[in-house]
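FORM 7B - TANDEM STRUCTURE REPORT

SECTION 1: FIRST PROTEIN
SEQUENCE AND TOKENS:
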Amino acid sequence: MSISPISSSMMSMYVPSTSTTKKTAAEEYEHQMIIQQLAAYGVSSTGDYETDKTRLEVVERMIQMNESQKSSTRQSIPFEDVMNTLNLTVTGDLDKDYDTTIDKLDYEIDMAYSDEEKEYYEALKDQVESEYNSSKKDSISYYSAASQISNMNRYMLGI
């Protein structure tokens, strides 16, 4: 049995393009996943695959930047040297480390056996309070700037 040239050319016309079909199905699946991730972040979908994909990438980059900034902020304690002098463990939480250091210094001031020792610990306490307050002022201006950037990003994303 032979195939005529007419029927063989007609058969090639009916073969579906599997690469296009698979790509479309894969894109649709990926777009559904992107929509779910956007919703989890509280961002609405535009319905356009490329736009939503870009939005998700921007949101994930912003989250990653915030997390790295938070972790670097936590590890920077301005009075770490005083904590080391007092044999205290630095946790990286500014407020907790401040409270622990001040409590220890108050104890040392109360237990001082001479005026010189008492003055030494009072001077350390003044230093810690000064560095803590300075650090708090810096963090307030940092978070204010960060919130302005966040608001600008939300505006640009149309969230």
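SECTION 2: SECOND PROTEIN
SEQUENCE AND TOKENS:
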Amino acid sequence: MLNLKTECEVYDLLIPRFVALMASCIESYPADKWNWSFNQMTPSARELGEHAFAWLWCDRQQIELPDPADHKPTPTLATQAEVANGLAEEGLRWKQLIERLSDEELSSTRFIWGQETRSVRGFIFHIAQHVIYKFGQLSQLRFAIGLDGSEPYTAPYPNCIYGFEPENSWPAARV
């Protein structure tokens, strides 16, 4: 049972976990599917991993280095292994960052490109949302290429878990 007592305990559980899941997911892609997507409007696993890494790097810098003059460009990750390793390393860096933040620091602000400011809490919220969303996109691609089972996906809905009759359950069966 989770007995989370602080906001940072929630972030510490959430962000590093989803980043580690992303890194593992990226490692599992076959090389011939690394740049695959549904169509040109859908990102590939490579693009999702690179995008997630870039924002993890950037937002962490915003928190750790309040002076934008101290920021460094986001590293370029050229291979699938580099993206997976980069994400894993960023997950550890975020874990260390979150573990040392105080409530006062969460409320402090940082500049974002120019005169706009955001609280440290805002940066952390952005990253939490970002890594959950990117992991969901990576997972969808895994389903599409058959890495998560051979049967059509069926989500477990609460009515079925509670034991309610199928005719009273939502959603309707696939046609």
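SECTION 3: OBSERVATIONS ON SECOND PROTEIN
The mean pLDDT is 88.
Helices lie at 7-28, 45-64, 80-100, 103-107, 120-144, 158-162.

SECTION 4: SIGNATURE
Preparer initials: ____
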